[in-house]
Structure formats: C-alpha cells, structure tokens
Specification:
- It is flat and about 55 Å long.
- Helix content is 74%, strand content 0%.
- By secondary structure, the protein is an all-alpha fold.
- It is built from twelve helices and no strands.
- The longest helix has 37 residues.
- The protein folds into two domains: 84 residues, no CATH class; 131 residues, Alpha Horseshoe (Zincin-like fold), CATH 1.25.50.
Length: 216
C-alpha cells in the first residue's frame, strides 16, 4: 500500500520517471488491449487520464460503464476525477446526477475525486452548493457518506473567503450526523489558513528561486 501511495504521489508531482512508464502502460492497455498489473492499475489509470486528452477520458468512462467488476468501477471513478480539463470535470460532476450513469452509492466517490483534484476543488464545491437539495435527498442526514463528502469537498480550503463562504452556506442547513464532519472541516480550514499565513513568505521565496532556475 505504501508503494502505491508513493507512486500516486509521484504521478501527482509529475515525476517523469514514474509518469512516462505509467503512460506507456496506459497506451498499451487502451490501444493494444494489454493487461495492466492489478497492483498498479489505479496509478496507471490516473496517469493516463491526468496527462491524456478527452479521448483517454472517454475511453475510461466507457470501460466504467461496461464493466461489471465493482473494484474496477471504483478505481475508474477515482481516476476519472484526475483530468486537468475543467470542462471534463464539470461534465463528470453532472453525470453523477444521473442514476443511469452513476449509481447512488458511487456519487460520493465522483464528487470527492474531483474535489481532491486541484483543478476541480472549486468546481466540486460549486456543484455541491448548486445541487445541495439533490445531494441531501440522496444521502439523508444519517449517512456516513454525507460526512465523508462534506469533508472531502471543503477541508482543503485555505483562505478566509473560503471559510466565510462555507460558514454562510451551512448556517441554516441541518446536516444531521454530518455536523461533526462540518465542524472538523471548518477547524481544518482555520489551520490551513494559519499555515499559509506562517509560511507564505518562505513559499514565495522558494517559488521565485524555482522560477529563476527553471528559466535559466
């Protein structure tokens, strides 16, 4: 499990020595129907989608739609949220509203996958707000899924504006058993804000040095 986590992080960090072979495995799977080793399938799918085009995304979507293997569906649901294309991320979120596309038990996985993607974080939040009545009706107040979803969508926010917006949105909403997750997520946002305040100068200096080195 640790090895897989390291490989996933390497893909997210765009480390070429991991991304390149993962993309090659994805291409062999997509174009030549070669099997991917089960223990790295999730990493390969993410690399193929994250660094691919709409074609790769749609291919994986069709595989998701047609496979009857639950574990494969789950891996693909996570990977489909890894694209850097905002349009595809938005379409993916909208697909999660249609029970012919995404089963009710998988909606949380779709929205959470998009929320974990830096390019999709605010798309997921806007979707969550816009379709709150449908989401609430789907999960109900006693659902663990609602708690998980709340945490996934908002706990990585790191600005005062984010904190105020989340607080205002939930001010008059009863989230039932999700209340604890909401409170914990708001505390996490506060910690994120404090961390950024304490480290902003160092981060700025590092970025300036990095950009200087990158441009020669």
């Amino acid at each position: 499990l640790l090895r897989i986590a390291v490989l996933q992080s390497a893909v997210e960090l765009q480390l070429d020595e991991v991304v390149k072979p993962a993309k090659n495995l994805f291409e062999d799977w997509m174009l030549r129907k070669k099997k991917i080793p089960p223990n790295i399938r999730d990493v390969v799918y993410v690399a193929g989608i994250r660094f691919g085009t709409e074609k790769e995304w749609r291919y994986c979507w069709e595989i998701y739609k047609n496979t009857i293997i639950p574990s494969e569906k789950r891996i693909l649901l996570q990977a489909l949220g890894a694209t850097t294309d905002p349009w595809l991320l938005q379409r993916y979120l909208l697909k999660s509203l249609d029970r012919d596309n995404v089963k009710s038990q998988d909606v949380e996985a779709v929205i959470s996958a998009v929320a974990r993607n830096p390019e999709g974080q605010y798309l997921a939040w806007r979707h969550f707000k816009a379709y709150w009545p449908q989401i609430h009706a789907l999960f109900g107040n006693g659902s663990l899924g609602l708690s998980t979803l709340i945490s996934s969508v908002i706990s990585d926010f790191f600005t005062e504006y984010d904190y105020r917006e989340v607080t205002e949105f939930f001010k008059n909403i009863d989230v039932g058993s999700g209340q604890r997750a909401l409170e914990q997520s708001l505390e996490t946002i506060k910690l994120n804000i404090k961390w950024v305040e304490n480290n902003a100068e160092d981060i700025d200096d590092w970025l300036i040095d990095y950009l200087k080195d990158s441009t020669g």
